[in-house]
Design brief:
The complex is a heterodimer. Helix content of chain A is 0%, strand content 45%. Chain A contains no helices and nine strands. Chain B contains no helices and eleven strands. Chain B starts with a strand and ends with a strand. Classes of the chains: A mainly beta, B mainly beta. At the A-B interface, β3 and β4 of A face β4, β5, β9 and β10 of B.
Chain lengths: 115, 116
C-alpha cells in the first residue's frame, strides 16, 4: 500500500484557518486520498476524500497537488471541537477488493486548537 | 446516515473473565466489519476483518482463539475477549463498510476495556 507522511503535531488558534499537509509521493493513479479524524476517546470519523480535483464539504476542503504527490486538508475556521488526530489514508478503489479493503492508519497529525 | 453503534462504551472486568463487545449498523447493511485496537498514544491497529456469515480473517499476531469475532448478520458483529488479562486493556473500535457509506467506512465510538 502506498504510504503517507504527516507531521506529528500542529497547533492553531481558534477561528483561524488550519492547513494540514500530507505527503504521498508513491501514490498510484487509482488511489483515492481519504481523511479521517479522531477526537479524544472516540472512534474515527470521516472528513473528506478525493482523487484529483479539489473537494469541499461542510467540514473541510481538500486541496490536491497537480502531481497528486501531496494534499492538504483545510479547516477554514478552527474551533476547539476540531482538536483531534487527523489521518491521511490512501485507498485504491479499483484494486481494493471492494468493501474488504483494510484501512491502514498511520500516526496522523495531532491538532491542538488554542482558544 | 451510516451510523454504527458500539456497546458498551466502557467495561471493567476481572482477569480471567470474558467480555463481549457489540457493533451494530443502524441504518445500512454492513457487508464487512473491521475490529481495531488502540493503545494509549498509539494509532489504530487492525485486528481482524469479517464478512457476514463467514469466518473472520485475523491480522498476523492476533490470536483468533482469544479474540472471537462473530458476524452473523448484516447489522451485527461481536468481539469477545476471552480469558482477559491486564495486557488486553485497550480501546477497541469497530468499523463497518457497505453500500452508501460516505467515504466507504464508518466507525463505532469505541469501547474502553480495563482488565483488573
Amino acid at each position: 500500500d502506498a504510504k503517507t507522511t504527516q507531521p506529528n503535531s500542529m497547533e492553531s488558534n481558534e477561528e483561524e484557518p488550519v492547513h494540514l499537509p500530507c505527503n504521498h509521493s508513491t501514490i498510484s493513479g487509482t488511489d483515492y486520498i481519504h481523511w479521517y479524524r479522531q477526537l479524544p476517546s472516540q472512534g474515527p470519523e470521516y472528513v473528506i476524500h478525493g482523487l484529483t480535483s479539489n473537494v469541499n464539504n461542510r467540514m473541510a476542503s481538500l486541496a490536491i497537488a497537480e502531481d497528486r504527490k501531496s494534499s492538504t486538508l483545510i479547516l477554514h475556521r478552527a474551533t476547539l471541537r476540531d482538536a483531534a488526530v487527523y489521518y491521511c489514508i490512501l485507498r485504491d478503489y479499483q484494486n481494493s477488493g471492494g468493501s474488504n479493503y483494510k484501512l491502514t492508519f498511520g500516526k496522523g497529525t495531532l491538532l491542538t486548537v488554542n482558544p | 446516515g451510516a451510523v454504527v453503534s458500539q456497546h458498551p462504551s466502557w467495561v471493567i472486568c476481572k482477569s480471567g473473565t470474558s467480555v463481549k463487545i457489540e457493533c451494530r449498523s443502524l441504518d445500512f447493511q454492513a457487508t464487512t466489519m473491521f475490529w481495531y485496537r488502540q493503545f494509549p498514544k498509539q494509532s489504530l491497529m487492525l485486528m481482524a476483518t469479517s464478512n457476514e456469515g463467514s469466518k473472520a480473517t485475523y491480522e498476523q499476531g492476533v490470536e483468533k482463539d482469544k479474540f472471537l469475532i462473530n458476524h452473523a448478520s448484516l447489522t451485527l458483529s461481536t468481539l469477545t475477549v476471552t480469558s482477559a488479562h491486564p495486557e488486553d486493556s485497550s480501546f477497541y473500535i469497530c468499523s463497518a463498510s457497505g453500500p452508501g457509506v460516505l467515504g466507504g467506512y464508518t466507525f463505532g465510538s469505541g469501547t474502553r476495556l480495563t482488565v483488573v
